[in-house]
Design a protein that fits this description.
217 residues; six-stranded mixed β-sheet; 7 helices; 8 strands
Length: 217
């Protein structure tokens, strides 16, 4: 078995753990050599009070730019909302070098490499969970986690060593976890969910309205 260092920044470039994702990265590197095409590291500092957990990098979003939720529709909605609630500063311009900074907030993914058709397998999710667990342990000032979608929710619950049956995903839920952490749930801010009306901007903002009072020092 290949030894891989596990830390709060996630897998190193060229992570070999998931053969299907390694092959997909290689194919994209050949087709788009100017793209990131590697595990996408978290965005935001280690002093974060809020950790936002998505599913995986988008092919033409984070896999291209190298920053979570940057370069696709999901990022348009997420970063606009963070700016509105004072959790980001600057201007989001869909580029990793746009100068945007996060305020007391950090963004990561349950799976750090882009999967084909945006669908990681159960084995890939489980393999990458070690990085999420290390990140959660390292964030000493963390007060809340926002899971974007059921997969991210389940991965957070597993990374914390909790039982899935006790903490089920429900959009808008605020789960008070053992140890004082809050786990908030939202449907993923993907183009599909917004186009179908499953998630509206107002619904997404309502999650932050409920969550932000729990982030106060």
């Amino acid at each position: 078995m290949t030894a891989v260092s596990v830390g709060p920044s996630g897998p190193a470039p060229g992570c070999p753990l998931c053969p299907r994702l390694v092959a997909f990265r290689a194919a994209n590197r050949a087709a788009f050599p100017e793209w990131h095409n590697d595990p996408v590291p978290p965005f935001g500092g280690s002093d974060a009070r809020l950790l936002i957990v998505g599913l995986a990098p988008g092919l033409r979003g984070a896999n291209r730019t190298g920053r979570p939720f940057t370069g696709d529709f999901a990022g348009d909605l997420l970063y606009a909302t963070l700016l509105r609630f004072g959790l980001a500063r600057g201007r989001y311009d869909a580029r990793a070098d746009d100068g945007l900074t996060l305020v007391g907030c950090r963004i990561t993914n349950a799976v750090r490499c882009v999967p084909p058709e945006n669908k990681p397998t159960a084995a890939e999710i489980a393999t990458c969970r070690r990085f999420l667990a290390a990140e959660l342990t390292a964030l000493r000032r963390l007060k809340a986690i926002l899971a974007l979608g059921a997969v991210a929710h389940a991965s957070v619950v597993a990374a914390l060593g909790l039982r899935q049956a006790q903490w089920r995903f429900r959009h808008g839920a605020l789960h008070d976890l053992p140890g004082g952490l809050v786990l908030a749930d939202s449907y993923h801010c993907s183009r599909y969910n917004t186009n179908t009306g499953r998630l509206t901007s107002a619904m997404f903002e309502a999650v932050f309205e409920a969550l932000t009072p729990r982030l106060r020092p």
